[in-house]
Amino acid sequence: xxxxxxxxxxxxxxxxxxxxxxxxxxxxxxxxxxxxxxxxxxxxxxxxxxxxxxxxxxxxxxxxxxxxxxxxxxxxxxxxxxxxxxxxxxxxxxxxxxxxxxxxxxxxxxxxxxxxxxxxxxxxxxxxxxxxxxxxxxxxxxxxxxxxxxxxxxxxxxxxxxxxxxxxxxxxxxxxxxxxxxxxxxxxxxxxxxx
Length: 195
Ligand SMILES: Nc1ncnc2c1ncn2[C@@H]1O[C@H](COP(=O)(O)OP(=O)(O)OP(=O)(O)O)[C@@H](O)[C@H]1O
Ligand SMILES: Nc1nc2c(ncn2[C@@H]2O[C@H](COP(=O)(O)O)[C@@H](O)[C@H]2O)c(=O)[nH]1
Fold this sequence. Notes:
Layout: E1 11-16, H1 23-33, E2 38-39, E3 43-44, E4 59-60, H2 63-71, E5 75-81, E6 84-89, H3 90-98, E7 102-106, H4 109-118, E8 123-128, H5 132-142, H6 147-161, E9 169-172, H7 176-191
Parallel strand pairs: 1-7, 1-8, 2-7, 3-4, 8-9
Antiparallel strand pairs: 3-6, 5-6
Helix pairs in contact: 5-6
Bound molecules: adenosine-5'-triphosphate and the ligand Nc1nc2c(ncn2[C@@H]2O[C@H](COP(=O)(O)O)[C@@H](O)[C@H]2O)c(=O)[nH]1.
Domain Guanylate kinase-like: 10-188
Pfam family, one: Guanylate_kin
Keywords: ATP-binding, Cytoplasm, Kinase, Nucleotide-binding, Transferase
């Protein structure tokens, strides 16, 4: 059966948008308020940042390991982003959805496009910055990326922002509290029993 089983009970929520827009910040706040929601841990070939732990922030893989996971169809989606590979492990997502959980993916735009094919019922929310200038300030303010990495991410962001209208919902992350409450409302809308 295709991964988007019509019998699936849980809801798949995809948060996408440019790097630095605040997806991770919003997800952590969502999980504080809804600890029973499940955040997918991605695999990546990028090097860990300070404080990131294998199996918690990401599964940190070599390029060879990542290729093996692709070959074994262990990934629900994957993409190359700013010189590294990123992908969503399939099994935990399918298992949590089957158990009726709300599952969150925090992924870039190419992967979010693939999810439309594999999980047509997923709801995909594009997070926008108030402006490109604010996005740049957030990327720099985070202090986690080199100047080269920031330049790559900003270049990528220009393309990603043009794709916003493809997604089911668009949400501007201006005031964090406002954006969080809009996001919770959007997700809970989909959790209401349907007639
Ligand atoms: N609404 C907001 N107002 C001000 N600062 C914010 C807001 N949302 C997030 N930030 C800050 O912006 C920076 C980037 O946020 P975050 O790391 O969550 O982005 P991201 O979209 O998850 O990035 P990536 O895709 O690279 O993981 C962080 O320093 C965070 O504290
Ligand atoms: N397509 C996927 N994109 C992913 C996944 N996990 C994270 N990401 C996105 O990659 C960029 C860069 O992340 P960073 O941690 O290096 O800042 C960002 O947009 C993430 O949302 C994934 O499994 N698939």
